[in-house]
Structure formats: C-alpha cells, structure tokens
Amino acid sequence: MGKILGIDLGTTNSAMAIVSGGEPKIIENTEGVRTTPSIVAIGKSGDTLVGLLAKRQAVTNPKNTIYGIKRLIGHNFEDPIAQNEKGIVSYLIEKSESGGVKVKMGEKFYRPEEVSAKILQKLKKDAEEKLGEKIDEAVITVPAYFSDSQRQATKDAGEIAGLKVRRIINEPTAAALAYGLDKKKEEKIVVYDFGGGTFDVSVLDIAGGDGDQSIEVKATDGDSHMGGEDIDQQIIKWIGGEYKKESGIDILKDELALQRLKEAAEKAKHELSSTTETEINIPFVTSGADGPKHLLMKFSRAKLESLASSYVEKSIEITKRTVQASGYTLAQIDEIILVGGQTRMPLITQKVKELFGKEPNKSINPDEVVAVGAAIQGGIFQGDVKDVLLLDVTPLSLGIETLGGVATKVIERNTTIPVSKSQVFSTAGDNQTSVEIHVVQGERGMAADNKSLGRFILEGIPPAPRGMPQVEVTFDIDANGIVNVKAKDKTSGKEQSIRIEARSSLSKEEIEKMKKDAEAHADEDAKKREAVETKNIAETLAYTAEKALKDAGDKVPADVKGNVEGAIKDARDAIAKGDMESIKKSTEKLSEAMQKIGPAMGAQGGEQSGRQEKKEDHKGDTPKDADFKSE
Amino acid sequence: MFKKDDKREEEDITLDEEEASPKDAIQRLRGRLLRSEEEKKEYLDGWQRARAEMQNFKKDLEKDSMRARQALKEGLFSDMLPVADNFELAFRNKEAWEKVDVNWRNGVEYIYKELLSVLASHGVTPFDDTGREFDPARHHSVENISVEEKKDNGKILEVVQKGYEHNGKILRPAQVKVGEYIKG
Asked: CA angle, B155 as apex, B153 and B158 as ends, to 5°?
C-alpha cells in the first residue's frame, strides 16, 4: 500500500507530513520550505501559480490572486462570513448557481474547493517528487468548528486534486495525535492555536482507551481574523511612530522602507522569543535634505509584550469562554497543547500556564504539529505498524561490572530490540586466568546500585600480563526481551554464556523508580565513578611503570630508576589512603618521572630506544575498555 | 521487564492416540505446514522490507544531511544579503555619495566589492533583470507602474532590491516594479 499524506490545509499556510519507518516526517515543498502559502493565482501570462510563486506576484496581481479561501469553503453566498469576506478581499466573490460562493481568477470563476484543490495538488506533486513514489491517499485536517458542508467541500477538494481522502480530522485532534495523547484514558485537553491569521481554541475529551478510544470536541471557539500578523503590524506601527518622533520622517509611506521594516519587525519578534532585548538596525532607511537617514532602535521583550498584550488577553478570554462552554472547569483540564507559530512567544506560554496552572505541551514545532498528527492518522490507516513488527525498546541499560565496581554499559536504555552489541574487555591482574562477568541492569554509575541479573565465570584464559587478554562480551536481546550474554576469550576461543529471562524481573513502577533514582543520584554517582577511574588510572600507570623498569633492566640509569620507583611508591600510598587529590598529583608525578625512562635509555643504547619510546606513549592512558575486576 | 511473545507453542502432533488415524494426522500436519509457510512468507517479507527500509533510510539520511549542509550555507548567505543591500543603498544617492572624500569613498566601495567577490566565490551572484518579463520564480513584485505601450505590460521597469542566485537556484527573488498596460 502506498503512503498516506497528512495535510494541514491552513488559512495562510499549509504543511504536509508522512509516516515513514514508523516516524512522522514533515515534507518540504519543491522550493525547499516546510510550509506552503495557501495562495493560488492566475499569473499575467495566464499560468496557474500556487504557493510561494503566487505570493510573490500578489501585490501586482491582486484581482487574480486568491488567498484565505479556507474562510469561504463550504459556505453559502448569503452567509454573514462570506459577505464579510467579500468586503475584505481583493478578488471578486460572487454567488454560484447552487447558492454557494465562487471566486474569480483570470477569466474564469472557481468554486472554493477547486481553489483548495490546486493547493492540494501542488502538495501532492511536491511530495511525490520528494519521496519518489506516487501518493494517492491523504488525511486532511479542518478546524473543529467546520460544519458538515465545509468538511464535505474540503473532501471534494482532495478528490478534485486526485487524492482519495481517507479521513477529514479536526486540527486539534491532529495536534493531540501528534503528542500521542490519544493513547491516554479519560483526558481533557485544550488545544490553543494562535496562527498567522487565525486564532482557534478547542476542548477535547478523550474517552475509552486501549485502542477503543474516541476523541470528542466538547467546545470550540476563536477569532478568524486575529493572528501573529496583527502583532507584526503593531510592531511596524510602533517603530514607524518612534522614528517619526525622532526624525520627523514618516517611513511608513515609503514602499521600500516599509518592506524593510516589515522584515526587520518579523526578525525582531522571532529574536525576542529567546532574548529579552534586540536591536532594529536599518541603515539608509531613507534620505532627507541633509543626507541619508538610518534607523537604529532598541526593542525589548517588555515593549513587544505591551504591543501584543491586547491580542494575547483576547485569546485568553476566548479560551476561558471555551472551557466554560465545554462544561469543565479550568482545573479539570489535564493537558494543554500549543499550536501555531505565534505560541513561541514566551508571554503566551506564560499566560496559558497561569490560566491552567499547568505547563503546556510545546515540544513539537507548533507550525508543523497539525500536519504531523494528520500523518500519524495516515500511518494508522497505512497499517505498517503491524503487531508482529511492533518493536520494543530496552527500558533500562544493560552492562557488566568492571574494575572498581563500575557499571559499564554495553546496551544503552531505549535501544530498539532485537539488538546485539559487543565490547572487548581485559583482565585487571597479571596471569589472571578467569574473569567474572556480572550482568547488571540500570542507570546508576556503580554496579552495586543497579539490579544484578546474573553472573558467570569464564575460565581458561591463558596466563598473560594484565590488560593483554581480549575478552569479547556480547549482549544479545531478542524480540521477546530475552538477554543472552556471552564472553569469549579471543586467544583461546573459550567461551561461556548466560541466558536471562528478564521478563519476570521488573515492573513498570520499578523501572520508573530506577530511572528516577539514577537521576537523583547522578552527581553522586559521577563522583564515585570518577574516584574509581582515578584510582584505576593510577594503578594502571604504576603497573606500567614497574613493568617498564623491569623490561629495561639495567639500561635505566640508577637516578632515573630511583625517581620512578619513588613515584610508584607515592602513587600506591596515595591509592591506599584514597585521597583523590593526592592520587591525581602522584599520578602526574609518576607520569613525569616515567617520561625520563625513554630518553635516558636512548642516551645509553640508541637502537633500543624506539621500542621503549613506543611503550612510553601509553603513559597515563586510560584503558579504553575497562578491565574486569580481578577475582 | 520485557514484553514476551504470548503465542503458545502448538502442541506436538503424535500418533499415539488410538482413534487418530494416520490420515487425520497427515491432514493436521499439512494444515500446520501450510500455516507455517504462510507465516514464513510473511516474516521473510517483513524482514526484507525492514532491511530495504533500513537501506533507504540510510540513503535518505545521506541526502538529508547534504541538504541540511546546503540549507545551512544558504541561510548564512541569505543573512549576509542585507549587508550587500545596504552598501547599494549607501551608493544609490549618487549626489550625496560623490560629496564624500574620494579616498574614503573608494575604500568603502572596495569593501563592497570584496563582499561581492566572497559571495561570488561561493557561487552567490546578484541579478538585476530590468527590462525582462516578470517571472514569479525569480521576482517578487512590489508595485505596478502604468505604461503607455502594450509591449511594456508585465515588463520589469525597476529593480528595487537585487535578487541573488546560488549556483542557479534563486536564493532571494529580486523586488521589482512591473509595467501595467491598461486598455483604452
């Protein structure tokens, strides 16, 4: 089955997404942009333009450029909304033969669904180009307040565009799907959607659960002519006014200056979402009798908030009203979702939070969340999430205990299973012929703080200096969550393994508790771990130094040898005392003393120095693969 | 902790029950073989699909990261364009600009040239297109200007802000004024 396109057919902008490999993904249009202006035009040369290209010629071709068609779709000509639009828009609106609306573009009249179809057609074509496959089906979103005739007309638009519309879903429902809230039982959700040109708020009720749930729209309200663009206008007006006070020049009358001002205002508004003050800098904005004039102005978040406050207050009033109409109280609302680019404004997040006393959901790009939700609905129809292919993840990390009681992770938590991962470890002592593999589960830094899943011993490792044997430890988790841990000595080929049927071990609550414990103890664990690692490094270095001296024999001058031996003793003493600072210091000193072995030997016997120096390169190396503790 | 497959193993078919004839057993075995083969097909298909998806995902990822690098570059270039515009605006009022000390003037003009040459070395070049037909793929119209002659209808009469392209792709459309011929 082909992919199903999720489409957010917006009043000002539209977006599309698809579920691929189980994950929703926004699809860029051919211009490389993630949203497409919902504008259609017949250009002066008679060709049909859609999206960005239509927008670019809108100023000089206003009569043949249709925007905001969503406000007209499914309406009768006599409807107050249609009458109101008639007085606002630059194109011609007339009554159609069936009593509906028709708009003029070029020499012809079009029904609103035919105009919407052109937008959908472009989205379909762009998606096909991007994905390299044909798209025949779609899920399209509409505002919750859309009537049956508006929904039908939107569906017709899809069919005209050559798309089989699998379902028309409500925009707020799509937002809830994007956040996965449909999976919860018994939730009341408010979706606050402050877009570029419209404001909508809806109260949803999720009932049921366990795949049998229904999402019901309890109440919906809004303002079809209030959005982020109004705030932009306020900023432009304010800057223009300030500049006039300062210079006496009205730059708002200058087309080019106004255009630059618009861009600067939008940029400043975006910047003030993350900073508290920005600068509006428009050099050579105009010129007066005494030469060129520049515009340089500080613009604070507080000022922006005062300019936007009336709109934000209005939106909050509408939200209150809507919740009241739903029959719930503000306190009964479980989740709030922010939709629309304007909700990036910190003031809005703050006001919404104040109203409900809860942090709203805003982690998904608010311009894209509706399209993402539509794609998820499409994904459900696509049915590519079959039961047998449902992939699980390991809820907690799995690893083994290594030198000093450290828990070394082999498989990190949230890794999708089935999975298999290997790491090579070594021995911690000379001539160590067996290693103990202690399998632990959890996020804590030290093995003892995690859950022990089992242990086994690998014997028969040929005697060798510490750090030489290579023991490959492989963790394998199958689709059922059964863990197989295998240790294999690479030299002798000896191996040993353990099978852990971990299903019985931990409940969901225990997993959550372990995760929380790990978070709570993160600092403490990191310190403990660091302490062990510092000790391990010191021990390894002392061992390496000892070995180097032994290997070199009498080629090392007595004074150098004495120094190194002294440093080894200091390091071992420090380790025994367990004071971190002195361990670090003595390790450093030992490392310095060791560096003299090579050159000293070089001075004594030239041709041997190469080998020795190579050994020296390992000074202070942290063993990459933590050693097993010796038994 | 892990989800376990709840499918129960089918019981083994044996012939030790007295009433079970070999025929029944064969039939049951045949049924099971058929189901197994169906399952095998389904699993193999799923496995192949998963592998193919992985391959495709890798390819997509590569393309995406290339695209992301490109977008990053283009974003940086686009952010630099207003700087170039401001130089143009500074030079636009010829009379005022000529009054500036010639050494300073030359110096500033050289800085502008340097900026353009840096952009050009990365494939970013300006275009003007005055006199050409308006094309929304390259231009953004800001105003109509009435013209006397029909041939000037739809022609670009003035470029308010230069457009830029990056290796043939429009980085920013030129802002233009377009001729409009009104009949009669």
From this structure: 125
Q: Check whether the bond before A463 is cis (ω within 30° of 0).
A: no
Tokens of A96: 């159609």
Q: Is A527 or A208 the better-scoring residue by pLDDT?
A: A527
B102-121 and B22-92 helices cross at what angle (nearest 10)?
Answer: 170
Per the residue annotation, which of A156, A182, A187, A193 is the catalytic one? A193
pLDDT, one tens digit per residue, over A135-159 is 999 999 999 988 889 999 999 999 9
- Provide the 8-state DSSP code for A69: G
Q: How far apart are CA A399 and CA A439, in angstroms?
A: 6
B153:A395 CB<8 A: no
**Closest-CA residue to B126 (of B66, B61, B81):** B81
Q: Are B146 and B181 in contact (CB under 8 A)?
A: yes
Alpha carbon dihedral A143, A148, A153, A158, in 10-degree steps, equals 70
Closest CA to A154 of A74, A71, A36: A74
This prediction has a pTM of 0.69
Query: If residue A207 lies in a helix (H) or strand (E), which one and from where to where?
Result: strand A199-207
Q: What is the pLDDT of residues A330-368, one digit of tens each?
A: 999 999 999 999 999 999 999 999 999 999 999 999 999
Q: In this structure, which long-range contacts are made by residues A501-504, counting pairs with CB atoms below 8 Å and at least 24 apart in sequence?
A: A502/A441, A502/A453, A502/B1, A502/B2, A503/B1, A503/B2, A503/B3, A503/B4
d(CA A314, CA B110): 53
Return the structure tokens found at B126.
């300006």
Side-chain half-sphere CA neighbours of B108 within 13 A: 16
Q: Which residue has the tokens 């009798």?
A: A289
> Computed from CA positions of residues A55, A59, A64, A68, in that sequence, does the dihedral angle turn out positive or negative?
positive
Report the relative pairing of strands A483-489 and A495-500 from DSSP bridges.
Answer: antiparallel
Q: Is A193 a catalytic residue?
A: yes
Whether A8 sits among the annotated catalytic residues: the reply is: yes
Largest Cα–Cα distance in chain B?
A: 117
For residue A156, indicate whether it is catalytic: no
Q: Say if residues B144 and B180 touch (Cβ distance below 8 Å).
A: yes
Secondary structure, 3-state, A210-270: CCCCEEEEEEEEEECCCCHHHHHHHHHHHHHHHHHHHHCCCHHHCHHHHHHHHHHHHHHHH
Task: Give the closest of A49, A388, A502 to B136, CB-based.
Answer: A49
